[in-house]
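I'd like us to work through together how a protein chain folds, taking it slowly. To get us started, please write out a protein record for me. Label the sequence line and the structure token line clearly, so we can match residues to local backbone shapes. Once you have written the record down, we can walk along the chain together.
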Amino acid sequence: MVSRIVKLEFHPEKMKDFLDFFDEVKFTVNTFPGCKGMQLLRVKSNENIVFTYSIWESEADLENYRTSETFSKIWPVIKQWFAAKPEAWTLKNHFDGLDLLN
């Protein structure tokens, strides 16, 4: 499995547009083949910055999403609202202590 973290910063006046759009597409992404789940996290000290955190069965599944029709419909919409260039990291899991809490 791999995790994907994407940092997105939006113009303040576009944050509501993003959140409304996100609510429309979140379940489509969350249930995309190979996606084990996704979260949207907002920075407390700057709520115009969000991080998406998603877990994927494999890098191939993540790449399938990134080249999918779904992604090609989502990305151009949110891209127009960016205040800064997005940053993204694909991570492999070394230790999962969260799993021990269940």
Notes: The domain at 2-91 is CATH 3.30.70.100 (Alpha-Beta Plaits). Residues 3 and 10 are 23 Å apart (CA to CA).
